UniProtKB/TrEMBL annotation:
Residues 55-64 have a biased composition (Acidic residues). This is DNA gyrase inhibitor YacG. The keyword Zinc applies. Belongs to the DNA gyrase inhibitor YacG family. Residues 43-64 are annotated as: Disordered. Zn(2+) binds at residues 12, 15, 27, 31. Binds 1 zinc ion. One of its GO terms (molecular function) is DNA topoisomerase type II (double strand cut, ATP-hydrolyzing) inhibitor activity. Interacts with GyrB.
Length: 64
């Protein structure tokens, strides 16, 4: 597996580290929580439930 892929799919959108499948598309629960908090904060002001950057719908919630 190539480890020198440019920034793109397969990397954490927050810190750029290789993402972990368990927390995809993030690299860790910390980054995932950070993103969720970010979204929750935005949701308070934005009625739309859709993200600004139309990416893949990968915001499924699965318990630990
Ligand atoms: Zn990260």
């Amino acid at each position: 597996m190539p480890s020198e892929t440019p920034a793109g799919p397969g990397k954490c959108p927050l810190c750029g580290k290789p993402r972990v499948q368990q927390y995809r598309p993030f690299c860790s629960r910390g980054c995932r929580d950070r993103d969720l908090n970010h979204w929750f904060g935005e949701t308070y002001r934005a009625p739309a439930h859709e993200g600004p950057d139309g990416g893949t719908d990968d915001d499924r919630f699965e318990g630990d």
